[in-house]
Amino acid sequence: MIEFKDIERYYDAGAVKSYVLRYASARIGEGEFVSIMGPSGAGKSTLLHILGMLDEPTAGEYWFLGEPVHKFNERRRTELYQQYIGFVFQAYHLIDDLTVYENLETPLLYKKVPSAERKSRIADLLDRFNMVAKKDLFPSQLSGGQQQLVGVARALIGRPKLILADEPTGNLQSPQAREIMDIFRQLNRDEGVTIIQVTHSDTNARYGSRILHLLDGKVERDEKI
Amino acid sequence: MLRNYFTLAARHLLKNRTYATINILGLATGIAACLLIFRLVHYELSFDRFRANYDRIYRVVTNDHDPNEGDFYQAGIPIPAMDVMQTSVPQFEAFARTHSMWPTVTVPESPGSFMGHKYATNEEQEVGIFTEPDFFKIIQWEWLAGDPETALGEVNSVVLTEKMAKKCFGSWQLAMGKNLVLDNAVLVTVRGIIADPPANSDFQIHLVASYATLKANGALYFYFPDWGNTSSNCQAYALLREGSSVDEAKNLLAAVGQAEYKNNGSRVSRRHSLQPLADLHYDDRYHSHFGTHSTSKNRLGILSVIGLLVLAMACFNFINLATAQAAGRSREVGVRKSLGGSRGQLVAQFMGETVLIVALAVVLGGLMAMLLAPLLKYVSDVPDTQPFLTQPAVLGFMLLVTVFVSLLSGSYPALILSGFNPVKALKNNITTRTVGGFSLRKVLVVTQFVIAQGLIIGTLVTVSQMNFLRDMDLGFQPDLVYVIEGISPDSVSLPRYERFKRDLQQIPSVEAVSFGSDRPSSNNTWSSNFALGRGAQDAPFNVNLKFVDPDYLETYGLRLVAGRDLEPSDTIREMLVNETLLRKLGISNPEDALGKELRLGGRRTAPVVGVVADFQSSTARDEQRPYVFSSRKTSYYTAGIKIRPDDMSATTAKIAQIFEATFPEQVFDGGFLDEKIAAFYRDDERLSALCKGFAFLAILISCLGLYGLASLLAVQKTKEIGVRKVLGASVSSVIALLSKDFLLLVLLAAVVATPVAWWAMSRWLEEFVYRAPLSVWIFAGTVGISLLVALLTVGAQTWKAARVNPVKSLRSE
């Protein structure tokens, strides 16, 4: 599903280039549940952002479902993204001015999904996550766990083939964290959704089938579980 | 999607109320100002545009070229020239001559009587003309009664407007076939009723008499059919055939009268030409149409630019505040992009917010403009009788403003916000600085203050010039002189002049009474060629004439610098000249002129007995002119009465009463001289008033923007302020820290505004021969005012920020 070769990403820090990723390569098949681990500054989040098409590599190739993403312009990347990818963030990143319902609706609006279908999809997800009663609340009225639940639901609403999660439980206490991870496992097993998560926690990594260990911008070790 | 954007925008506005209020108020103010100017400009540009055949209507004009004195433009045509034109220009589909009059109209008490109710025609609003039936083929008019073909066919027939007919007969339906007496002499019959001209027409004609009536009363109405007589009262209008060439018609006209004009032996070469109806209202070289005023396109252009500047300032506010806020919205942008929002969709969202704000502002601005519209009559000729907001042009303009302002103020913030890198935006790594708008915001604030300061300087300069004109030595005393104008020195009235004067002198508060052809300072000119010295050649310039009695100098306070006043006489026997005349002839000692023979127009000769000190004979825009004073009773159209300041209204009432008793067949037209002189500067006073209004607006809008920026800056610098206070900074040093940048921007604006405003205002002042100096204080004062206002605006915000307990502000980070 995903193949990236010699991905390189640097930032201009004055006169010198400061490399975050260099010669990072790997292949991820459909249906896998992959965790990316590594020390701070290893380039985990940057790699995830590049895979999620939120950022661009400065060099290297990125193939997604056989398409050369590195050659695409922003518009085509957005199309691809809208169709196949959902993102979950550590800090939830819900839109403060929107209710739970509207937060879930936003990706569908961007995908131009017709109104009736939007309603039924949102209703399904609210039902599934037991959040029907909270649909008119604003994010500030929810607990962290509930917010992240909305965040996951929002990532799922577009029925993605790939979910990218950047330390999805980093801000949560363990019972809530477990709930979120269980949902990921279920999605991966029952619905065949490919999941790539960045995490510091071994416990969370154990939910997956494979761990990519990053060090100094390279995939240093590829561990199968 | 749209509904979503809209709710989102509405919530965003509610959540940021201060920001929204500042934005909407600022924009609304700018839009209101712009709408009012639009109304004014649109009104002035609408003159006579509704006329059928607008493009084919022309006025025939006269262009003179004098090798010594340059070009002269006039609307008058010698009557014999009109006769030639009528038949010699095949391009004319219709041609009509007009002859203006401002008659006293009497509605006879009984048929055939010359006594009855009198009505004066107001010089500005109600013109009377003699003309030919073809006039109504050129200037098409709605007829309520009568036949345009035949109504003016006979001698002594008139056509009245509905308003005039109503004034005379109570109702226009009663007017047809009734008699009227014009100027106590000409009995005419009403043969037609036409609709009142709309306000935006330069044909404010309310009484039309047949041309045959003019010919039958030639002496009364100055009908002089000779080649040497050109009066702006005698004009000609033409309708060109469809598809005919204007240039060919102009060529034919240029040939008219060439032989006759050369025979006159004049230096002046004269060509007739055509002035399109489209220029009539705007070309102030010719003046003298039948409307209330002219407006130069230049002036309309300046106004439009001011309007656009004020609107632009309001848009700058919007951009400023929106980009300053952008940092706070970066996370939202990041999230939306990570949810699959494309750049276009984000641009649409932010533009949606802008459109909402702008739409609210346009509605509010429209309401403000509607409330302020009646004030327009103080600064322009726009009547306040017409509805404002419901006019299609105004509505269309509001729509245009909505679109234009949304694009202008929304696109930059929208492009900036939607262009954020989602990764950076999510990390909240975007600060006000990285938005890249900080320097732009500085530029916009500086621009706002340049405009505001420019307008303040404009205001101060116009006000100082107006004061200068008010206090200027005119060479005579305009205060407390009551002037009665338009007296007709006809054979009935002339014998009563002396009695009138005696009766007036009986009033205790009257100091002096004098008759003359004109007041010392007016727009009227009466000039002639002349020669000074026995048998001398004509001087290379014309001299202006005033015919006055011996009390004239005393009444108006004119001073003699040499010789003596005129002796009483009813005809030209002696002459006074002014200093300018002597200076132009190179005579330095006034005494040298005394006793010399002065020949006027090649005929009348009389000795110079005195020299009058120079006086301001028309507006301060013009040079002082050479003048000759002499006596000639038959030219006394004006009475001047110097009164004492006690109980002036009783005195003027008494004057009017004596006038009515002495000249029952004449209409009383009296007023104070200083007010008449002030009327010269009506346009300048209006400009000054407009400047004041817009300077105030500009300052207001700039301050709104500054206030918004300062409050945002205070929020963004909360942490820095906290740290500084922990390190021991005092409140005043924090205020200084926060205000310094803004004050520097205002100073920078002054550096730009001062030379530009200095240049523009010197250009304006150059129109005046007599002008107030451009004082340094005007510029220093402007900088002072803007610094003070900026300091007050920013100060309130920084004071609040500086007083926050540092523990609190540091915790919040």
What percentage of the residues of chain A does DSSP assign to strands (E)? 25-35%
Unreliable runs of chain A, pLDDT <50, ≥5 residues? none
Structural class of chain B: alpha+beta
CATH architecture of chain A: 3-Layer(aba) Sandwich
Helical fraction of chain A equals: 25-40%
Indicate the structural class of chain A. Answer: alpha/beta
Which range does the strand content of chain B fall in?
Answer: 15-25%
Model regions low in confidence, pLDDT < 50 over at least 5 residues of chain B: none
* Discrete helix count of chain B: 26
Largest interface: A-B, 29 and 24 residues
Helix-strand string of chain A? EEEHEEHEHHHEHEHEE
Write the CATH fold name of chain A: Rossmann fold
The CATH homologous superfamily of chain A is termed P-loop containing nucleotide triphosphate hydrolases
Task: Give me a quick take on this structure.
Chain A is α/β, with parallel strands linked by helices and 225 residues long. Chain A contains 7 helices and 10 strands. In chain B, strands 1, 2, 3, 4, 5, 6, 7, 8, 9, 10, 11, 12 and 13 form a 13-stranded mixed sheet that branches. In chain B, strands 16, 17, 18, 19, 20, 21, 22 and 23 form an 8-stranded mixed sheet that branches.
Give an overview in words.
With 225 residues, chain A is an alpha/beta fold. Chain A has a single domain (2-224), classed as P-loop containing nucleotide triphosphate hydrolases (Rossmann fold, 3-Layer(aba) Sandwich). Chain A is 35% helix and 29% strand. In chain A, the strands form 2 sheets. Chain A has a 6-stranded mixed sheet, sandwiched between helices. A 4-stranded antiparallel sheet of chain A has the order 2-1-4-5. Chain A is globular, with a radius of gyration of 18 Å. With 813 residues, chain B is an alpha+beta fold. In chain B, the strands form 3 sheets. In chain B, strands 1, 2, 3, 4, 5, 6, 7, 8, 9, 10, 11, 12 and 13 form a 13-stranded mixed sheet that branches. In chain B, strands 16, 17, 18, 19, 20, 21, 22 and 23 form an 8-stranded mixed sheet that branches. In chain B, strand 9 (179-182) and strand 10 form a beta hairpin. In chain B, helix 10 runs parallel beside helix 14 (392-418) and helix 16 (438-471) runs antiparallel to helix 22. Chain B is globular, with a radius of gyration of 34 Å. The mean pLDDT of chain B is 85. Chain A binds chain B through residues 46, 49, 52, 54-55, 74-75, 78, 81-82, 85, 87, 89, 93-98, 102, 105-107, 109-112, 154, 158, and chain B through 1, 4, 7-8, 11-12, 15, 331-332, 334-343, 345, 421-423, 426.
